[in-house]
Design brief:
Blueprint: H1 2-12, H2 17-22, E1 35-39, H3 41-48, E2 56-60, H4 86-89
Parallel strand pairs: 1-2
Organism: Clonostachys chloroleuca
Protein name: Peptidase S9 prolyl oligopeptidase catalytic domain-containing protein
InterPro entries: AB_hydrolase_fold
Length: about 110
Amino acid sequence: MQDCRDLLAWVYDGGLETPLRNAGSILVPDLDHVFAFGTSSGGHLSFCLASQLVQGIYAMYGPSNFADDCWTTKLEGMEPPPGLTDSLLNKVFDEDPIPITGGVSPEGQAT
């Protein structure tokens, strides 16, 4: 979320003008019409910018009602795959500090 807010501040502070000018673009950023958009978790991040200086939000499939019982109600008949135990799922919390490098991102980019 902080990265999103930092990006928005960078845009409003004129940070977008230099890359556009260096690319030979004739486009000029219109700071009166800055919108946030995203899908899924990106949609949720867009919603979180609602109190910031954005003129509109387009969020597709982003969660928006965390008070709904669906977030805490166990689905009937849904069982985890064999071998997927709570201890295995909780291994993510065993590493301190949490690793932030290595592997491949969800988009397939090396990290």
